[in-house]
Amino acid sequence: MRLKNKVCIITGAARGIGKATAIKFLGNGAKAVICDLDDAFVQSAVKDLSEYGEVTGFAVDVTKPDNIRYMVTEVLKKYGRIDVLVNNAGITSDAQLVKMTSEQFDRVIDVNHKGTFNCTKEVVTAMIQNGAGKIINISSVVGISGNFGQTNYAASKFGVIGMTKTWAKELGRKNINVNAVAPGFILTEMTMKMPDNVLDMMKEKSPLKKLGTPEDVANACLFLASEESDFVHGAVISVDGGLVI
User: Fold this and answer.
1) Predicted TM-score (pTM) of this structure
2) 1: which of 20, 93, 213, 220 is 20 to 30 A away, CA to CA?
3) pLDDT > 90: what percent of the chain?
4) How many CB atoms lie within 10 A of CB 36?
């Protein structure tokens, strides 16, 4: 039980990588707090996840600090501490630079970049008071190498890496580990809707010639949330099948 009784908040956890991470954490003894934008999806996820352990759900818009503050307050009322934060909530809105609107750019930055800032700012005070904590930011290989048609997404995920390294410098002395995970092409509900030829192209780009799974990313998050990673700090762990070498 690598996370026995650890209180872990996971954003964007109603499905995909976030939900897989919640399952992995619960299976290792954690008390999971999941949040997502849509309350119906959250309640459905809570129902699914309850068979794995103790889980609480909140409908949260990570662009709204008041939403996050309410969740954090309720979690502290219930458990008295927060041990782990996984900043997973994120969106895409792709277009080439010449066609991308300001609204598209701003929305992705607001959710992926500023949302990570908002959640961490609300949680970190509790971690400082508790004398320890683990912050795990979900970036992307796009935040390392860029990607055609994803100016906004690349900017947001580069920014997540920048914040990760900055917070590592600031919070290490408070016994708070801050790291990032950079997934590559992951087989989620969204990618499974893509045409087969596109999926085949994505596989060919990886030296392993396959797509990753949400569980692959969840395994990296479990390591970073556990005591096994206590001397891992300011790192960006790529889970991409060797896509960026």
Assistant:
1) 0.97
2) 213
3) 92
4) 28
Output the six-digit token pair for 167: 């917070």
Q: How is residue 239 written in tokens?
A: 């889970």
CB 171 within 8 A of CB 129: no
Sign of the alpha-carbon dihedral angle for 163, 67, 15, 76: positive
What's CA 208's distance to the chain center, in Å?
A: 24
Q: What are phi and psi of 36, to 5 degrees?
A: -160, 170
Which backbone phi and psi does 223 adopt, to 5 degrees?
Answer: -60, -45
Q: Long-range pairs for 21-24 at CB < 8 Å and ≥24 separation?
A: 21/86, 21/88, 21/214, 21/217, 21/218, 21/221, 21/222, 22/49, 22/52, 22/55, 23/49, 23/52, 23/218, 24/215, 24/218, 24/219, 24/221, 24/222
- 153 counts as catalytic: yes
**Per-residue confidence (pLDDT) for residue 108, from 0 to 100:** 98
Give whole-number Cα distances, 121 to 72, 183, 210, 217, in Å.
11, 24, 37, 24
CA–CA distance, 15 with 112 (Å, rounded to integer): 16
Tokens (6 digits) for 152: 């906004």
Asked if residue 179 lies in contact with residue 232, where contact means CB atoms within 8 angstroms, the answer is yes
Q: Does 194 score more than 80 pLDDT? A: no
Query: How does DSSP assign 100-151, residue by residue?
Result: --HHHHHHHIIIIIIHHHHHHHHHHHHHHHHT-EEEEEE--THHHH--TTBH
How many contiguous H segments (helices) and E segments (strands) does the chain have?
9, 7
Given the structure tokens 């947001």, which residue do they identify? 156
